[in-house]
Backbone:
């Protein structure tokens, strides 16, 4: 698991499952936040 993926997991819990806000807080770009967040949940 990468550092960014670990950060995503921690932020997901904090953001009550809001994928877009979680991806942004984990350092992913605005343009890819929803797509990246959805992919992360499939891991």
Residues:
């Amino acid at each position: 698991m990468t550092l960014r993926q670990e950060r995503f997991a921690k932020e997901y819990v904090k953001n009550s499952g809001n994928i877009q806000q979680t991806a942004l807080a984990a350092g992913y770009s605005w343009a890819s936040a929803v797509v990246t967040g959805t992919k992360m949940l499939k891991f």
The domain at 3-41 is CATH 1.10.10.1400 (Arc Repressor Mutant, subunit A). Residues 3-14 form the longest helix (12 residues). The chain has one domain: 3-41. The chain has a mean pLDDT of 88.
